[in-house]
Design goal:
By secondary structure, this protein is of the alpha+beta class. The protein has helices at residues 16-34, 41-44, 47-56, 98-112, 127-135, 162-168, and strands at residues 6-10, 58-64, 67-76, 81-89, 117-123, 139-144, 151-157. It has six helices and seven strands, in the order E-H-H-H-E-E-E-H-E-H-E-E-H.
């Protein structure tokens, strides 16, 4: 890949339709790979749902040379934890470092907001996703099958010393 510029910024109203397209592409692939039964909530999402999240959550987009190619949402809770959702990169732009750049931005944002732990769900069956999150310092907290497939709740700790421990054991790649 050429030296292309990847930037991250807060999502705005004008991003809604491209976010909806990226989310549908990414989560259609997720549903196929995970063996999801039924239609995942991400595929039922309306433009109004996205607009509401832009107003109420930390909602970030990644741009590649000025074109939105990825997005992620984070809800910061009152207890000092946060939940990451709808993380997706356009299918044609995957494996170009965009997800890594988005997650680096999320990490800095969580530290700035003094979040102690960040949680997310992913399909435990999709090895590439689990590896990606493990490489970013997440670990499996628990699993469930309430959506018809094995879904892992992952956690990343931002508490003092947690990175050092992960670096020692090679679980966190910089």
């Amino acid at each position: 890949m050429d030296n292309k510029l990847i930037t991250v910024r807060k999502a705005v109203t004008d991003d809604v339709l491209v976010i909806q397209k990226i989310t549908r592409e990414a989560f259609q692939m997720y549903a196929e790979c995970s063996g999801t039964i039924g239609i995942p909530p991400a595929l039922k999402e309306t433009a109004e749902d996205i607009l509401s999240d832009i107003k109420t959550k930390e909602f970030l987009v990644a741009e590649l040379d000025g074109v939105v190619v990825g997005s992620v949402r984070i809800e910061v809770m009152q207890d000092g934890t946060a939940y990451l959702s709808r993380f997706g990169v356009a299918v044609e732009n995957q494996s170009q470092g965009i997800g890594r750049v988005l997650m680096d931005y999320v990490d800095n944002l969580m530290r700035d907001k003094q979040v102690s732990k960040l949680y997310l769900h992913t399909a435990s069956k999709i090895l590439s996703l689990v590896r990606f999150y493990y490489g970013r310092g997440f670990y499996i907290d628990s699993t469930s099958k309430e959506r018809g497939y094995i879904r892992a709740l992952l956690c990343k700790s931002y508490e003092e010393g947690s990175y050092k421990e992960n670096k020692i054991y090679g679980l966190y790649a910089i």
